Amino acid sequence: MAIDLATPVLVVDDYKTMIRIIRNLLKQLGFSEVDDAADGTQALEMMKRRKYGLVISDWNMEPMTGYELLKEVRGDESLNRTPFIMVTAESKTENVIAAKKAGVNNYIVKPFNASTLKAKIDAVFGD
Amino acid sequence: MSQTDQKKLRAAVNKLGKRKTITLDDVLSFAKSALIAGGKDTQAHEQCDIEIIREEIARLQPLDLSSNHIPNALDELDIAVKATEEAAEQILTCAEKVMSIEASDAESYKASVNEAMLEILEACAFQDISGQHISKAVDTLNRVDRRISRFAKASGMRDWVGAASDCEARKTKRQKELILHGPAKDGDGLAQDDIDALLAG
Question: CB distance A92–B179 less than 8 Å?
């Protein structure tokens, strides 16, 4: 599955600064359609209204965490094929194992750099 | 401890637990019940122990902590967080400006980049101010730690088993269920390479 740079990407994070950083990095990578949400609940509503080609989500948010969002997405037939990358400061083994079990496509630990983000997106799309 | 004494102590604990607000008198009254139930029922002994607890609570200076030191420390942390956010915003704005500069005219490009770089250097001054605010908050935490440690040692108190409040219990339950640890200390969490290996395995 090659990357379609016109595909809409949804960035989910409760820190506006982090959304801005990821948005800029995605722009540098060539993505033109980037939306953002402040938590899992808002992200899920947006995903039901628009088809996203990639979700990049933080873990620790309220009221709905990125982990809960991942499980909701994987449990919804209309959304469960959406590639999902977790970008988070949660770096314990149990977090990674839980995310893997829930169906995450890739996992990036914060702080991260542009090349890591690019490598993980490439890996998700098999490039 | 006799069954009657145990009942008295249980009644005192229940009475204290049902209060929405707990005053110093409530704590002393509970301590008195506990001492009596514990067999220290001579008046002199009881009075002596209560005086010790009263003095230790006074030394804890809880009103001074809750009305001065803790609010001040929270203010210091708020200022540090805001300064960090403002600096990050300023640096991001400069970076976005540089990325969007028209590069056809080399002289003009150089001048615009230099201007943006100067703004980034200025924004980095936040670290000094934030560091000082955080140091003040850390001083307060150390002060609280010293007073509570002294109180715990002097009073010989044991921790309440379980959560200190319903709110804390709910928070702990949520953190456990949703695996919320927050950022790890250096060397405490997995590095990206370890995560990659775990995902591939």
Answer: yes
